[in-house]
Amino acid sequence: MEENSCLRQAKCRAKGGAAGFKVAILGAAGGIGQPLAMLMKINPLVSVLHLYDVVNTPGVTADISHMDTGAVVRGFLGQPQLENALTGMDLVIIPAGVPRKPGMTRDDLFNINAGIVRTLCEGIAKCCPNATVNLISNPVNSTVPIAAEVFKKAGTYDPKKLLGVTMLDVVRANTFVAEVLGLDPRDVDVPVVGGHAGVTILPLLSQVKPPCSFTQEETEYLTNRIQNGGTEVVEAKAGAGSATLSMAYAAVKFADACLRGLRGDAGVVECAFVASQVTELPFFASKVRLGRQGAEEIFQLGPLNEYESGLFCLLHLCFQDWLGESEERVSWKHSKGHLLQQEMKRCQEKFHRLSFFSLESPSPVISKP
Ligand SMILES: NC(=O)c1ccc[n+]([C@@H]2O[C@H](COP(=O)([O-])OP(=O)(O)OC[C@H]3O[C@@H](n4cnc5c(N)ncnc54)[C@H](O)[C@@H]3O)[C@@H](O)[C@H]2O)c1
Ligand SMILES: O=C(O)C[C@H](O)C(=O)O
């Protein structure tokens, strides 16, 4: 009798009783997915947690579901279960896809990950078109525009709800800057704008909080290290993948901010890679205010110093190839190309002594989905 009652309670609970948001992780059995799932299970804002992958979700789900926190966990395995995984979700976090190995750029992941992201976003468009999407899969500079195209085609595109996750760049910047300043990283806030590859990652060291100043040597060291944090981890892991634990931490920090925004909290501001009119580029990472509708406000970059202006100019050029061979790209190139070539020359002259040009190629290629 008692056993039946326990079973009944468990079944009832498994329907998801606690107040909170419904969150799905796609790619939940992977290097990022597993610690991310664990940390989201701890998050008090989550009432239901759906774990989807093409492999190993039964084991990961069984494991995580034993944690005595509020969220109810359910596992979904393979394409036939994708729709059930997505139905009713408020937030979908996507770390599905292959990671880099040493010697690769994020662009090298494009062919495989573009297809994965496209399929998953088709599912989102069908089953939870109003969900906020946190896209982690690389190359973020290209997977976010691909997701936008999928949603546009499905008629569900809301640019405020599609957010490329660049939080790891901010987390790294806070850590490295705190090291140089001798501060606790939790007291440091570094805006990182642009994109998520090599020189498209632009830390705004002139806007660090608390206000501080750096020597030119410190500025170059920090910029270089922040832009290459991903490669530092890829090389240290020596073929066993890229950042997973720090990424899971960053993803949860960002997802938590999105959920607090959805709850209606005021003043939730984080950096994210979003459709943007802050620059001439159609997608750009900058500070956004997160609210019930997603990225409700996108902040201007604020004043850049001379060094940052040079890097911004370089970043702008690197994004040229990324716009895709669409009509939009062709006309954009025609209108801006000449000017940008001149800028590039100026930037190269100015920065030729720095190591930026030998770094990871930041020119992701977008092909039409
Ligand atoms: N945005 C960032 O800052 C950032 C940081 C680190 C890694 N990444 C990227 O995140 C991605 C995942 O990295 P990882 O280390 O977790 O890789 P991983 O290989 O450990 O895990 C990826 C998971 O995705 C799953 N997967 C593959 N195809 C799928 C599909 N069609 N549907 C659902 N799941 C699928 C795999 O089965 C695997 O479990 C990579 O593209 C990596 O480059 C981004
Ligand atoms: O560097 C990578 O390939 C993974 C990720 O984008 C990172 O910045 O760590």
UniProtKB/TrEMBL annotation:
Residue ranges the record marks as coiled coil: none
InterPro entries linked: Lactate/malate_DH_C, Lactate/malate_DH_N, Lactate_DH/Glyco_Ohase_4_C, Malate_DH_AS, Malate_DH_type1, NAD(P)-bd_dom_sf
Segments traversing the membrane: none
Keyword vocabulary terms for this entry: NAD, Oxidoreductase, Tricarboxylic acid cycle
Swiss-Prot/TrEMBL catalytic activity: (S)-malate + NAD(+) = oxaloacetate + NADH + H(+)
Molecular function per GO: L-malate dehydrogenase (NAD+) activity
EC number(s) recorded for this UniProt protein: 1.1.1.37
Biological process, per Gene Ontology: malate metabolic process; tricarboxylic acid cycle
Gene3D superfamilies noted in UniProt: Lactate dehydrogenase/glycoside hydrolase, family 4, C-terminal, NAD(P)-binding Rossmann-like Domain
Lactate/malate dehydrogenase N-terminal domain segment(s): 22-164
Domain Lactate/malate dehydrogenase C-terminal: 166-309
Family affiliation: Belongs to the LDH/MDH superfamily. MDH type 1 family.
Protein name, per record: Malate dehydrogenase
Record organism: Citrus sinensis
